[in-house]
Amino acid sequence: MLRNKRAAKALLLTACAVLVLAALSGCGKKNAQEAAGKQVVAQYKGGQITQAEFDRFTSINKFLYPQYAAMLSDPGFQDQMLDQLIAFKILGARADDKTKKDADAKAKDQMNQIAQLYEAQYGKGSLDKQLKDQNLTRADLEKYIKDSAYAYDAIESKIDDNQVKTEFDKKLKADPNAFDVATVSHILIGLQDPNTGQDLRTKEQALARANEVEGKLQSGGDFAALAKEYSDDPGSKDNGGKYADAPVSQWDPDFKKAVVSLPLNKISDPVLTQFGYHIIKVESRTTKTFDEMKEQLKSELAQNQIYDFMDKELPGLIQSKNLPKPPAGDNPQTPAPPASGATEPGTGSGSAPSGAAPGTPEAGSNSQPSGQQQTGK
Predict the structure, then answer these.
(1) DSSP H or E segment with residue 284
(2) CA nearest 324: which of 50, 84, 70, 71?
(3) I want to staple 270 with a disulfide (CB 3.0 to 4.6 A). Which of 181, 210, 370, 375 is the partner?
(4) Among residues 366, 368, 323, which one has the least CA distance to residue 345?
């Protein structure tokens, strides 16, 4: 999504419209629905948004992000979704023919990837079935992906290598390890249960247990087996405690400091972070070059420019908004979703397969292995 990466369900008809539709049948009902769909809910410099367009946009977002269904009747959330759709329209109109052609090709590739994900997880024809359940079609989904790609690529195409190099140098100056990547195995002796937040042990107890594990490793114990037995990191314990080729900048500062300074392939003494004590073995450590980071940094710059557009330019381009108000009493206070547009790593829910949200600017961003944030990694 464009702003705060939030998504929602399509707007319900107003109470009056629902009553009218209930009283009609056959052709009359169809005509009433068509009339409601043609209602203009927003006007902006250069265009307008109809109720049908808005409903389709929010339905697609609800399909991609099922956890946002609870927000469907929140007027503030609906208003933000409308702003996002307007932004898609305005920015997409700024894309040149080459940008649109490239975006069309990306959209087809992403549609194929989504279909393959659904078939792998739910069986043949599952994508069409789940779209149909929400009154959507593949054409609706592909249009959404194209429209968002037009908007995003229109911004990204204007970012040149000099701007990206400036950003690279800026990050490197702020953090000399900003582009370091490491393969690390660790065993966490935690202070709290990552699922419940309940205390597991004191620092003194954790340190004693960590020393016990270190001793077994120094005596030739198998790291993967001991990780499975002792580690309190749910994101890595069943994988030998390993995180492969991970950016060190994502980790707890104390853990990161150890990873960038420890000798390779040596068992560390217990390292204390806010999450507990870690026994760490750094298996490899490299630094990505500008050429390796260029596309990611360009994507980050584009996202920042989109946020700036939403905050600074968009309000002056919107001429009017006229979303139907939900019925009285149908306005729950819903909590805002995480800024990342997703739940904590490894805890995502919903019917869409993992990664089934391509087409949005944040698609393809670096997701972290399960449990890292709870364990100091």
Answers:
(1) strand 276-287
(2) 50
(3) 210
(4) 368
Decide if 252 contacts 377 (C-beta within 8 A). yes
**pLDDT score recorded for residue 8:** 30
The token pair at 114 is 């989504």
Which of the pair, 355 or 140, is modelled with greater confidence? 140
- Give CA–CA dist 317/324, Å, rounded: 21
Joined together, the tokens standing for residue 91 give: 């920015």
| 134, pLDDT greater than 80 | yes
Domain 15-162+293-337 coded CATH 1.10.4030? yes
Q: Where do the H-state alpha helices sit in the chain?
A: 15-23, 26-38, 51-64, 75-93, 97-122, 126-133, 138-156, 161-174, 203-218, 223-230, 253-261, 290-308, 314-317, 372-375
Single out the residue of 208, 83, 97, 103 nearest to residue 148, CA to CA: 103
For position 70, what pLDDT does the model report? 84
CB 360 within 8 A of CB 5: yes
Going by the DSSP 8-state scheme, the letter that residue 197 receives in this structure is: -
From the centroid of its chain, how far is CA 364? Answer: 9
* DSSP notation for 31-75: HHHHHHHH-EEEEETTEEEEHHHHHHHHHHHHHH-GGGGGGTT-H
pTM of the model: 0.68
CATH number listed for the domain at residues 180-287: 3.10.50.40
The C-alpha atoms of residue 182 and residue 243 are separated, in whole angstroms, by 8
pLDDT at 291 over 60: yes
- Tokens at 95, concatenated: 């894309």
Token pair 């204390």 is found at 272
Q: How far is CA 135 from the centre of its chain?
A: 24
Q: Any residues with CB less than 8 A from the CB of 93 and at least 6 apart, and which?
A: 46, 47
Domain with CATH 3.10.50.40 in the chain: 180-287
- Residues 6 or more apart in contact with residue 347 via CB below 8 angstroms: 370
pLDDT at 35: 53
In this predicted model, what pLDDT tens digit does every residue of 334-364 receive, in sequence order? Answer: 444 333 333 222 223 333 333 333 333 333 3
Distance, in Å, from the CA atom of 275 to the CA atom of 192, rounded to the nearest integer, reads 7
